[in-house]
Design brief:
This protein has one domain: PH-domain like. Helix content is 25%, strand content 31%. The protein has 4 helices and 7 strands. It is globular. The protein starts with 6 loop residues before the first strand and ends in a 9-residue tail after the last helix.
Length: 134
């Protein structure tokens, strides 16, 4: 279940066509959007290039998957997740896929019924930048 900004649990997906995900925590400040790992994932380790990812998690250290400046964000809210998920990147960086809704199955429907107001608050805090780039 997601919560309103500035902090929530979310899911980081490998791609739109591949439903592999990892549990993460999003943090929104006045200047940054940060994604912290909540669990280990081999594909995230390979994507980020961290050699000590698993060890840091085991020791309780925070593992930052990405940290983007808000004034440099590229955000696209996706209909695939009923606008409860978005693609995010910074200028010339890797594009990450973040879902505030459970990525597949019945959990998605439950989140859809209970969390839409929360997603709206995140969309207000992180507006879609693709709409102004026509």
């Amino acid at each position: 279940m997601s919560t309103a900004p500035p902090k929530t649990k979310a899911y980081l997906l490998k791609s739109r066509g591949n439903s592999w995900w990892v549990n993460v925590e999003l943090e929104l400040t006045d200047t940054t959007l940060r994604c912290l790992a909540s669990e280990y994932s081999k594909w995230v380790e390979e994507e980020v290039g961290l050699t000590d990812y698993k060890a840091k998690l085991t020791s309780g250290e925070p593992v930052v998957i990405f940290e983007f400046r808000r004034d440099r964000l590229n955000i696209k809210w996706l209909r695939q997740f009923y606008r409860g998920g978005f693609e995010v990147s910074e200028v010339d960086s890797h594009k990450w896929l973040v879902a505030l809704t459970y990525p597949t199955g019945f959990g998605t429907l439950l989140d859809l019924m209970t969390d839409r107001a929360v997603w709206r608050k995140w969309r207000e805090a992180l507006p879609d930048t693709t709409k102004s780039k026509a």
